Amino acid sequence: MPATDLPLLLDAAAAAGDIAMRYFKSDPQVWDKAGDQGPVTEADLAVNDMLTARLRSAQPDYGWLSEETPDDTARLTTHRQFVIDPIDGTRAFINHSLDWAHALAVVEDGRVTAGVVTLPARGLTFAATLGGGATLNGKPLHVTQVTDLAAANVLTTKPNLAPHFWLGGAVPPFSKGFRSSLAYRLCLVAQGKFDAMLTLRPSWEWDIAAGSLIVSEAQGTATDRWGAPLVFNNPYPQVDGVLAAGAVHGALRAALV
User: Which of 64, 107, 155, 174 has the greatest CB tally within 10 Å of its CB?
Assistant: First the structure.
């Protein structure tokens, strides 16, 4: 990985925050995406335009995958790719919640090598490089060492608690929390604020690429719902759910069907 990738992502994420905060709580124009893919705002598009120009000009040989850019197969022929969510948690952004994020990653041969997740409204910047550890505002991150699933605090949503997902139809009695942004949920696990996060539905790569590296570099484990390694830059850019945790990862995976 070129040594410039993490500084490049950090600078771009800071610029994204500057743009987004100009729209935040100012009721930007909102459109509904086709295919029931949720809302998009003029802030999402402005951030995406800036990131496209800044990142692609800095590394023109990298492929490009962004939630707000039509996908094409050209990225599949590249060695490295930018994987970007201009605003993760657009509904939170629209509703004036603080829990939206910019998620920026570089992927090489299917693995994330650099990742940044920023929450401008909260003043938080999570960052990681492969083999280099994970930080929050420059300070090292570590996942929790909780191993008892009943004592765990897990970020998830109600559909994931349907009995048919769990062995014997019994949902473990862990504590439950929620945040709008998948990227932020992953970072909260890396930070040790929660013991795990779980989503069992197919997940877009741009939502999880940066955060998954931040978890793993905080000594945690981030896999798909079956416990398999996450692989990025797929022809169809989704993975089969995400399970990210500290020491409780094995127990949580073992409780799932």
Answer: 107
